[in-house]
User: What shape does this take?
Amino acid sequence: MRVGTVREIKNHEYRVGLTPESARELAAHGHDVWVETGAGLGIGATDRDYEAAGAVIQPDAATIFGACELVVKVKEPQAAERAQLREGQILFTYLHLAPDPEQTADLVKSGVTAIAFETVTGPGGQLPLLKPMSQVAGRMAIQAGATALEKAHGGRGVLLGGVPGVLPGKVAVIGGGVVGFNAAQMAAGLGADVTILDRDAEVLERLAAHFESRAKTRFSNRANLADCVAEADLVIGAVLIPGAAAPKLVTRAMLGTMKPGAVLVDVAIDQGGCFETSRATTHADPTYVVDGIVHYCVANMPGGVARTSTYALGNVTLPHTLKIADLGWKAALAANPHLAEGLNVHAGEVTYAAVARELGYPHRPVEELLA
Assistant: This one.
């Protein structure tokens, strides 16, 4: 199979779908690997590195989209890229379709077979292709929030860890999954006063056992959430419903109860955000202020640490990329029901139930396609 990757064109996105090491593995399996010139520069990988791995460098994205049977990216295809997708082609990347009707409509119209990293499952309902980026984003959320809290960036002027004689900043983490756990680890490591909210009693028990006295846990109901948000200097939105739009847990009315200059970091922004006042921002212009509260809503947060993120992502996506290339999409999905959960759109039909429900499309079950 001819497998290609292109230079990401989303604002300040420096990751790349295939590393030179991934290209080498694909080439060793007998596949042709095409890479757009300069695609890997954001992670320090040159065209020469890809050529040494057995890839062929192509002059532009149009060549890749025009001739490759499988295109591996990182971020959702932008409008100019979606216009080049075609029926029979396989797209393997993050999609986050539920809050993005324009992208969904374009993918349906193109006839492409679109497999989303974020809905591929693992044993026990895990999301293994989302996990490494959730780990990165959770850790970065505290870095970003700490910077936004600085007075020069519009924040309250609070140091999260405090100093002797001065209380530390208060951090509320909404959601105790991978993002929330990693955010809490970073915040607790800085010495902040950390509270994690979740609705799952087992998750709360696990978090309490792990953090002991370094972080508090609270059941996430309306009263407790409102209390924690009002007290916090920094709130991390770390809520995920796989494939679906994130629930709006922090309302605009709640902003009025917060301390002026407090910071909201919405890691759920890829799925529409979990704060009512969230809108996607970029690394070029990451924050804005609503009712005196600083919002950080960068939709591709891990792109800021592109090398770490790309290699972490490649470690978990490569086995699936190899299977799709070796067997074709249909046989690969039939052989692996976890990978089959990643199929979101195929030949003009929406195949992921949560996306179909959110955006009003008929749902074509994957099982029917594979039968």
Observations:
- The first strand starts at residue 2 and ends at 5.
